[in-house]
Amino acid sequence: MIGVTGVLNRIQELQGQLGLTPVNPAPGATGTVGTATTTGAGGNVSFASALATATGQGGGMRLNNQASGQDVVDAAKKYLGTPYVFGSTDPDKGLDCSALVQRAYSDLGIKLPRLSHQQAKAGEPVANLAQAKPGDILAFDSPVDHVAIYLGDNKMIAAPKPGDHVKIQSVYEKPTHIRRVVSDFSAVAGGQNVAAVRPASLQGTGSLAGVPYADMFVKAGNRYGVSPKLLAAVAKVESGYDPQAVSKAGAQGLMQLMPSTARGLGVKNSFDPEQAINGGAKLLARNLREFKSLPLALAAYNAGGGAVHRYGGIPPFSETQAYVPKVQKALAALGG
To answer: Could you tell me which CATH class the domain 69-180 is placed in?
Structure first.
């Protein structure tokens, strides 16, 4: 039978062919943590989920390291007051305990299994409550029949029981399992631009309040490892947040993708905001990895990577020379 390392090696081979971000290495193996997905007949499939299925481990690995625990807490707090409804995953109708946990992580682009006993195996174990951090999953009883999200200071957010609602409460008994699914993100870009290209999970997303499509920027940013604030700044300069914008050169949509570029990014409809934002995030992530500089990554977004290489820096095009500082100014206005 093929082992975990063998499965990961095969997945990494497929990822290289498809241009996807590597998934977690097996214990003792080398590799980069990520949340790569591919599309099959059934829609988007997480490589992490595929690996868990292939190895029968049901989620015993870190699923994502590009969001922070505080992001998880903030996502969960959006559901405070939601009624407890057993079996429901629709917050408009109600949520049960594991649905709340799954929903909070899902809002950050992180896939978790549905049931509490499965969530008690997700991510990595934490030894005890003293070592727990905000965003960790607390599981209770044996077999596990309840889960919550730790807030710190012996507090948690949970959907407790029928007749109750999502609320903050004290950790009333010792958890039987504590699991950490997210951890700090380490940017690969160097120099003075590192802070600007890190996901907003380490910068806070409060300044995106009131920005159109803010949730989509956050989700795409965490998925591709790009600051949501940077995505929002690019969209503001490119289209003024107009999903139907078309430039004189033929660039389309919120992120102003040329049709050929959009096709290469897997974007079928540049006028669809979510597809456009994901395409823009994928392109910016690629540029940041290649050029390891925010100004050069932005210049490549505007003029193409070939032009940046050809001129050895920001090309001497008036549009590009003006574009880079515009986006940096918009990013600064968002607190990036």
So the answer is: alpha beta
